[in-house]
Sequence to fold (160 residues):
Amino acid sequence: MRLTTRTNLAMRTLMFCAVNADKLVRKTDVAQACNASENHLALVIHMLAQGGFIETTRGRHGGIRLRHAPADIAVGPVFRYFEADVPFAECFDAEGNQCPITPCCRLREALQAALGAFYASLDKLTLDDLTAGNCQLEGLLRLSETARPHLPCPELRARA
Fold:
């Protein structure tokens, strides 16, 4: 299984917003931190706003921020929203399926069950689970003008 670039960028954008939850963030800052094209990111940001995950403010002092607290944003719905138009396999595409064995294919049933388990797992995971206490992520994504005083990272101490 491989996620689309849009889904990957959507999650990076949401994590960037969660790490910088105390301010509006600019698309250029997200693009730079997440190694993304601003043009591609613009589409992702638009979709995130349409999906109700972020809010956008236009203008010179505009930017984006999470619409809900990180603990209230489950990863599963984000993945479903961005992957909805990409069938997992040909037989999952109601309009484009030309596989002759679809009606009796047991692999299709197994794949449906596996996808269900995949999404059920992501439904339990929140944006907060990915970002809260993740010192290394914060170090990579936190905007410098809002940097918090350096605190020892428990994750790094545990590895030492």
